[in-house]
Design goal:
Elements (H helix, E strand, L loop, with lengths): L2 E10 L6 H19 L2 E6 L6 E10 L2 H18 L3 E6 L1
Antiparallel strand pairs: 1-3, 1-4, 2-3
């Protein structure tokens, strides 16, 4: 049996004043997360808003407990490595 979960992370980046800077922060965070956890991850919304970043993550696992541990680790990783305030999480 496969267990699938979508996770949306909403962040607010106070110090960014240009969309180009947001792209650099976003790309860096996505690349770090993808390398560390081997998950599907992308910016999914708010591309035109320069201080808001919305990232979608998909995790598939054969074990529900493993999937939940991965999601928890990804959230902790992003809280530490994102140069932004994590404002909301939706699963």
């Amino acid at each position: 049996m496969l267990f699938f979960c979508n996770l949306s992370l909403y962040t607010h980046i106070l110090y960014l004043y240009f969309v180009l800077a947001q792209r650099q922060v976003c790309r860096s965070l996505i690349d770090k997360t993808q390398r560390r956890f081997n998950v599907s991850i992308a910016e999914i919304d708010t591309q035109d808003t320069h201080q808001t970043l919305t990232i979608g993550i998909a995790v598939v696992s054969g074990d529900a407990a493993h999937r939940q541990r991965m999601l928890d680790e990804i959230i902790r990783f992003m809280e530490v490595h994102a140069d932004a305030e994590l404002t909301s999480i939706e699963t």
